[in-house]
Amino acid sequence: MLVILFYSCSNNEAVLNGDEPIKPNQFVNAFKIINQGFEANDTNVFRFADTQKISLKVLNNVVPDTIISNWTNNDPKTIFKPVGRIAKSNLNYLLLLIQKPKKNGLTALVFDKNNKFIAYKNLITENEKQDKEYFKSISINREPTFYITRQKYNYKRELMFTKTGWAFSGNNFMAVVNESNEPSTSNEPLINPIDTLPINSKYSGNYTVNDRNILSLRDGYTPREYKFFLYMEKEDGKCVGELKGTMTLSDDNHATYAANGDPCIIDFTFNGNSISMKEKGSCGNRRSINCMFDDIYIKRKLVRKNKVETKPKPIQKLNNKTKQTAQTKQ
Fold it and tell me: Which pTM does this prediction carry?
């Protein structure tokens, strides 16, 4: 049985649903602290929210309006409510409920020790059409690591799932877990155009979600560069994307694809044997309009074909008896 304990550290002077902005520290402290782990799904997450709504004027004072626009998608009926806060020594993670008619979303906001907004991560999405057959849930431990799971039954009544774990590091959320038993979406062979290039650099290799979603890295011209080929295919072929180019390392764990004249910009984060990818620019000319380059890829062991060595037959030395036998046959 799930137990979630809250206790209030809210500032009584803070009015979240008012017409006047409040101070960032008042906004953060208005979220009740979560003492233990948190679990919810897309059908019951609204039950954990506070009854008090957060007005757009209050939210705009602490979160960039471009991010809020992505959440509302111009829907005036969007409602924001506080769910809870995970307090750490230098960071506060705020769980924010985003409600629309018959839709519930949950987002994590990250604030630093000075109550400055740093980043956010959508946890339970808003029941998009492409995910409507899935049951989605979120589990958060004390670290915190955010485990996002989606599940559905296939036509054989077998449970199909994809589980992704995210942790905040530096200024970004990084993928730490990616597990799935979902099959690939197509039987057509996928050709990797850079497969034969050298693979001597640290991160060179093949990374996959499944055999229809791959990220292939090969050695670049300098130690800070990697040539890559990216192919994405989801939603039974309705979401397809492909990109080939060069990424450049900004440090040991981060790289960016940003080519002159191309509005498409992608950030790559290396974490152990995985790469998480986040689309930053406009990549609509490289993919379907209803999806983005945003996924986690796990490194796979390269299988090289064994070379068949053909040894020359030893030259037979003919003795006098062998020579006579050969001459007789002639």
Answer: 0.59
